[in-house]
Amino acid sequence: MNSKPLFIFLLLSFMATIRPTWADGNPVDKVYHPLVVANERKVEWRLTSRQTDEKNVLAQRFAYGQAITEYLIIEGYISAERDVSDDFGLQGFELEARYMLTDQGQYWADWGVLFEFEKQHDSNTFEVTSGLLFEKEFVHTSLTLNALLIYEWGANVQNEVETEFRLQYRYRFMPEVQPAIEIYTGQDFVGIGPAFMGVHRYEGIKQLKWELAFIAGLNGKDKDHTLRFALEYEF
Predict the structure, then answer these.
(1) How many alpha carbons lie under 13 Å from residue 38 in its C-beta half-sphere?
(2) Weakly modelled stretches of the chain, pLDDT under 50
(3) How many CB atoms lie within 10 A of CB 154?
(4) Residue 223, pLDDT score
(5) Which of 170, 203, 208, 230 has a CA between 20 and 30 Å from the CA of residue 179?
């Protein structure tokens, strides 16, 4: 069966949903890949700095993850954020599961799913995220898409279902340096910008990955841009 019509339909469906009715938080974050490596363990650090006309929000996330099977990896996160008083403190906890639906290269494209559960610190506020992960390699480039469905409920938030979309088009120039273009959408936000990433491999499955991106919001005259950086060590 030719998968190209299915891919085109899904891509158009995702793009058709890009409108200002989406998730309340900053949508600029990691673009997830469907690949899971058997027996892998990882530690991860992510940093995002979002600058708007009103404020500068600095957030960090620390994670440990481990593959449970050759298709499933579980990660636990602790997130921290700088508040309006410039105090940096604990923001929430998160449990994440990523499942690889297809073996890498088995079909025309690679597919996976993502599930997340998050609880805010010192608040009965919760968030559940589920999403479809897609990746397709074209000679020396890779296209990765994340389509996410989010449900929020609890104290101080309106119970609602929201969506996010993330896109990364990457040129595999060399393992250590891979330039890319990323697109993110969220509530009242559509952003695009350059990204750079790479991987340094050690013995066996040990490797260090890095990512750096600057995403500019296309939201009229208001300033809204985000710098994101991530380090991930797999062993």
Answers:
(1) 4
(2) 1-9, 12-24
(3) 13
(4) 85
(5) 203
Strands 141-154 and 160-171: antiparallel
Amino acid at 74: I
Q: For residue range 87-127, what is the model confidence (pLDDT) as tens digits?
A: 778 989 999 999 999 999 899 999 999 999 999 998 899 99
Query: Across the strands, what pairs with 79?
Result: 61, 92
218 is written with which tokens? Answer: 């296309």
Q: In this structure, are residues 39 and 67 in contact, taking their beta carbons and an 8 Å threshold?
A: yes
Which CATH topology does 4-234 take? Porin (2.40.160)
Q: What's the rounded Cα separation, in Å, for the pair 162 and 151?
A: 6
pLDDT at 25: 65
- Torsion (CA) 84, 92, 99, 147 in degrees, nearest 10: -30
Report the 3 state secondary structure along 120-144. ECCCCEEEEEEEEEEEEEECCEEEE
What pLDDT, on a 0 to 100 scale, did the predictor assign at position 204?
Answer: 86
Q: What is the pLDDT of residue 12?
A: 45
β-strand partners of 116 = 96, 129
Cα distance between residue 167 and residue 136, in whole Å: 12
Among 183, 203, 205, which residue's Cα sits nearest to residue 194? 183
Residue 31 is given by DSSP the state P
The structure's pTM equals 0.86
